């Protein structure tokens, strides 16, 4: 469920009409619903009720400070994968004890940043990283809490570019090696082993791969405890998918996910961490764009928008589907027609949809890309020297711009010309 609904034939974000925002900020833009973000966070929190747990929002899905502040105020932790994301979490007021640092390539500077600024744990992905954390923590005179990210070799049955739990993926330590690496960790200075971490991928639409991975984590936890390790925390990652279409083929609900976690792991007495991103922010946002032209092609028609692949790269990068809907509902009985929906970027890949059935539109009309709150603005670029588009947050009947569109002067001002030119 989200809070983007038609009222009187006009698409609204909560109680604000989308055309009102478009008139104020121009198109294209992203708009997020505070009510949807809140509801989706609470669904996960309630799904784990009765267990000691922390829901850590995966910042990589949407890193806007206002979104992080909203979720942090609700009690969310943060899952970060870079020093920049760590700084964002802290800038949003999230304390270090609620920040988990993941990622395969943490630099020494990033490790030191987190150790000095406060960290809940590092999810360690390799032996060299483990040794680096030990050296830096020892030099700083602190102890680094760590969980080893294990790779369970489980097929997440998702897109190959967002699968992370198979043996050929770059993530984690092979689960068969885990006991040996934990033994090494226990001997290293400056290291405190606190748990086990696993994350098998993103946009999973069934629970079976999760259960297979969590069952392996359970077996490993029991074996590690036999080895003398105090495993008191299980970080289960994120990855639960969202419905990108309005079909009945919906992914499992957080309640089902939580019930499965309790059934598989509930008797271990461990604190549970989960790291959802997409399911919290995905359906909490839409991207709004204007029609520039309708173009008749050879055997196909094109709907050319002012948004492009640099604003929303998922369709070009992953072949991803986003429902594209008119902001002003078509009159009853209006017949849709097939269009290739494209942007103005000088790439054939700048295509959002092919042969999509769209109700008749005219230049200047607004369309909304649903389910664009995750991996939308965060993956945007200034390709073709197109400014990053604004982000807007709606709460009830009011809205605020939470990231401005930069001016061309600001964009050009970031470059510098050497004196010899």
TrEMBL record:
One GO biological process term: lysine biosynthetic process via diaminopimelate
Cofactors demanded by this protein: pyridoxal 5'-phosphate
Annotated pyridoxal 5'-phosphate binding sites: 239, 275-278, 375
Residues in Orn/DAP/Arg decarboxylase 2 N-terminal domain copies: 36-281
Signal peptide limits: none
Gene Ontology MF, one: diaminopimelate decarboxylase activity
Ranges in coiled-coil conformation: none
Enzyme class at the top of the EC tree: lyase
Binding site for substrate: 278, 314, 318, 347, 375
Function noted in UniProt: Specifically catalyzes the decarboxylation of meso-diaminopimelate (meso-DAP) to L-lysine.
PANTHER family per record: DIAMINOPIMELATE DECARBOXYLASE, GROUP IV DECARBOXYLASE
UniProt-recorded name of the protein: Diaminopimelate decarboxylase
Gene: lysA
């Amino acid at each position: 469920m989200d809070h983007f609904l038609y009222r009187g034939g006009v698409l609204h974000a909560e109680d604000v009409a989308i055309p009102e925002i478009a008139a104020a900020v121009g198109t294209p833009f992203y708009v997020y619903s505070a009510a949807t973000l809140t509801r989706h966070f609470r669904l996960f929190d309630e799904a784990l009720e009765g267990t000691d747990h922390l829901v850590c929002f995966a910042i990589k899905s949407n890193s806007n400070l206002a979104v992080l502040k909203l979720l942090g105020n609700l009690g969310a932790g943060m899952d970060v994968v870079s020093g920049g994301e760590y700084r964002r979490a802290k800038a949003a007021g999230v304390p270090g004890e609620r920040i988990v640092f993941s990622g395969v390539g943490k630099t020494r500077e990033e490790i030191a940043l987190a150790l000095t600024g406060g960290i809940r744990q590092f999810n360690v992905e390799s032996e060299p990283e483990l040794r680096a954390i030990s050296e830096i923590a020892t030099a700083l005179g602190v102890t680094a809490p760590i969980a080893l990210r294990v790779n369970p070799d489980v097929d997440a049955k998702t897109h190959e570019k967002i699968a992370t739990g198979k043996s050929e993926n770059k993530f984690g330590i092979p689960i068969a090696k885990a006991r040996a690496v934990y033994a090494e960790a226990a001997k290293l200075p400056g290291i405190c082993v606190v748990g086990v971490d696993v994350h098998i991928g993103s946009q999973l639409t069934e629970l079976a791969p999760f259960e297979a991975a969590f069952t392996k984590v359970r077996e490993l936890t029991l074996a590690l405890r036999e080895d003398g390790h105090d495993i008191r925390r299980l970080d289960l990652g994120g990855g639960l998918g969202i419905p990108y279409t309005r079909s009945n083929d919906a992914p499992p609900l957080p309640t089902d996910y939580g019930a499965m976690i309790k059934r598989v792991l509930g008797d271990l007495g461990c604190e549970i961490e989960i790291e959802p991103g997409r399911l919290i922010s995905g359906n909490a946002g839409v991207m709004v764009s204007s029609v520039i032209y309708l173009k008749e092609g050879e055997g196909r028609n094109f709907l050319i928008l002012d948004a492009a692949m640099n604003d929303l790269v998922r369709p070009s990068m992953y072949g991803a589907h986003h429902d594209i809907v008119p902001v002003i509902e078509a009159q009853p009985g209006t017949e849709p027609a097939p269009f290739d929906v494209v942007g103005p970027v000088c790439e054939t890949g700048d295509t959002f949809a092919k042969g999509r059935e769209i109700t008749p539109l005219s230049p200047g009309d607004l369309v909304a890309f649903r389910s664009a709150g995750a991996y939308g603005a965060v993956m945007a670029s200034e390709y073709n020297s197109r400014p990053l588009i604004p982000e807007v947050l709606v709460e009830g009947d009011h809205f605020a711009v939470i990231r401005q569109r930069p001016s061309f002067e600001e964009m050009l001002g970031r470059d510098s010309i050497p004196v010899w030119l």
